Amino acid sequence: MIKNARKRLISRKQELLAIMEASETDGKPVELDQSRVGRLSRMDALQGQAMAQETERRRKNELSRIATALERVESGDFGFCVSCDEEISSKRLEIDLSTALCIGCASAAAT
């Protein structure tokens, strides 16, 4: 299970990095030249830029979670809650390999 988890985490990391590289220009500043672009087009461009920046932030967050999950794989702590040290259910790990909390600790943290 751990070797498979490591492979899947590395694969997802590479996938995210490729996506981020391909969409690098999406978050660049919007040109506000009123003589070339109408007001609605500028608003659309600004909205697109904001959405691209939020997507980039989420991808970076996921990369960070993947990095810490890979560290847990290497240290032998993968599959155990970082809060209470209980085993994380395999179904929860199937959904998100980078999860660091068991369902009980995740629920407690959300409230």
Describe what you observe in this structure.
- This protein is an all-alpha fold.
- The chain has two domains: 2-78; 79-111, no CATH class.
- The protein has helices at 2-22, 39-75, 90-95, 103-110.
- The longest helix has 37 residues, at 39-75.
Q: Could you write a compact summary of the structure shown?
A:
With 111 residues, the chain is mostly helical. The protein is built from four helices and no strands.
Primary descriptors:
mainly alpha, 65% helix, 111 residues, 2 domains, 4 helices
- Mean pLDDT, all residues: 88
Q: What fraction of the residues are assigned to beta strands by DSSP?
A: under 5%
Instruction: Kindly state the number of beta strands.
Output: 0
Low-confidence stretches: none
Number of helices: 4
- The helix-strand sequence is HHHH
Please describe the biggest sheet, giving its number of strands, its sense, and whether it closes into a barrel. none
Helical percent range?
55-70%
Rg for CA atoms? 19 Å
Shape: elongated
State the secondary-structure class: mainly alpha
How far from one another are the termini?
31 Å
Number of domains: 2
- Assembly annotation: single chain
Please write out the topology.
Elements: H1 2-22, H2 39-75, H3 90-95, H4 103-110
Helix pairs in contact: 1-2
